[in-house]
Amino acid sequence: MTSPTLARPDLTAADRCDRCGAAAQVRAVLASGGELLFCGHHAREYEGKLKEMAAEIQR
Fold first, then answer.
1. Which of 7, 6, 46, 5 has the alpha carbon at shortest distance from 25?
2. pTM for the full model?
């Protein structure tokens, strides 16, 4: 038996970076189930730390 997974919707122009408010280009899904949205600049800045946290990075 497989468990169903919920697909997260694609990012739209209305989605904003959680750090600065610019248009979001990257979604980081945390192991706890939460998510963070980042612009390209902040995605690059925090990418290493997000990988350490085992976050799934969706571009």
1. 46
2. 0.84
Return the half-sphere exposure (C-beta side, CA atoms, 13 A cut-off) of residue 29. 9
Residues 27 and 21: their CA atoms lie apart, in Å, by: 14
Residue 3 CB: number of other CB atoms within 10 A? 4
Tokens of residue 40, six digits: 């390209």
Q: What 3-state DSSP class applies to 23?
A: strand
Q: Which two tokens stand for residue 14?
A: 């209305």
Tell me the pLDDT tens digit for each residue of 8-46: 899 999 999 999 999 999 999 999 999 999 999 999 999
- For residue 20, the SS3 value is coil
Q: Exposed, middle or buried by CB within 10 Å (0-12, 13-18, 19+), for 16? A: middle
